[in-house]
């Protein structure tokens, strides 16, 4: 028996052992063992929009975006909720007149996905569910006088699908890149498709 088949058998038995213990957990224990992540982000945005209340004004500009969410997931279930806040200044020009508008946007969202066991296997994991997003926009442009403030709210409900493929490296790999030797250790990885 060579080293590859011994390693392969060890991986199979460790996988079977982990699935058996995973299946024996109660729903409450599964919830507690599901890892939790906090995602925090910031970025620069570019926006273009048409203000239908003051048509034909087209606004363009930039701003900043802040983002925070809580994500809990495992192979069977995934849930995420978060908030996104963006603010900036946009410019509109019509002929010789130029005007500026400050824009604030708040978005709340929630996503819940469940595994589809009939088409999932060791390599591919298919999840389906729904996403809910509520967005509120606030625009303030003092040069428009009686139409200086605009407020709108949009709520969207989406169907969501997530597909992941296991691309883990199960054994140590060594080699050379040009003249530099390297060693890659076993690692658990997934490739994600939305």
What are the main properties of this structure?
about 190 residues; mainly beta; 7-stranded antiparallel beta sheet; two-stranded antiparallel sheet; 2 helices; about 15% helix; about 60% strand; disordered N terminus
Folded structure, characterized:
This protein has helices at 3-24, 27-33, and strands at 36-50, 58-73, 77-94, 97-115, 124-140, 149-166, 173-177, 180-184, 190-193. The longest helix has 22 residues, at 3-24. With 194 residues, it is mainly beta. The chain has a seven-stranded antiparallel β-sheet with strand order 1-2-3-4-5-6-9, with no helix packed on it. A two-stranded antiparallel sheet has the order 7-8.
Helices and strands in order:
Layout: H1 3-24, H2 27-33, E1 36-50, E2 58-73, E3 77-94, E4 97-115, E5 124-140, E6 149-166, E7 173-177, E8 180-184, E9 190-193
Antiparallel strand pairs: 1-2, 2-3, 3-4, 4-5, 5-6, 6-9, 7-8
Give a quick summary of the entry.
The protein contains 2 helices and 9 strands; from the N terminus they run ααβββββββββ. It is mainly beta and 194 residues long.
């Amino acid at each position: 028996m060579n080293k590859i088949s011994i390693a392969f058998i060890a991986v199979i038995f460790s996988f079977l052992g982990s699935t058996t213990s995973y299946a024996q957990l109660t729903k409450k224990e599964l919830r507690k063992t599901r890892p939790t992540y906090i995602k925090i982000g910031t970025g620069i945005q570019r926006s273009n929009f048409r203000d239908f209340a003051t048509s034909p004004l087209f606004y363009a500009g930039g701003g900043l975006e802040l983002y925070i969410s809580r994500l809990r997931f495992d192979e069977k279930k995934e849930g995420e909720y978060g908030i996104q806040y963006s603010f900036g200044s946009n410019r509109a020009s019509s002929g010789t007149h130029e005007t500026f508008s400050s824009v604030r946007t708040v978005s709340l969202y929630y996503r819940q996905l469940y595994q589809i066991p009939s088409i999932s296997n060791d390599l591919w994991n298919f999840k389906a569910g729904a996403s809910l997003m509520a967005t509120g926009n606030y625009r303030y442009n003092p040069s428009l006088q009686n139409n200086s403030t605009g407020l709108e709210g949009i709520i969207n409900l989406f169907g969501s699908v997530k597909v992941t493929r296991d691309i883990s490296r199960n054994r140590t790999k060594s080699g050379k890149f040009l003249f530099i030797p390297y060693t890659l250790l076993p690692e658990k990885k997934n490739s994600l498709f939305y």
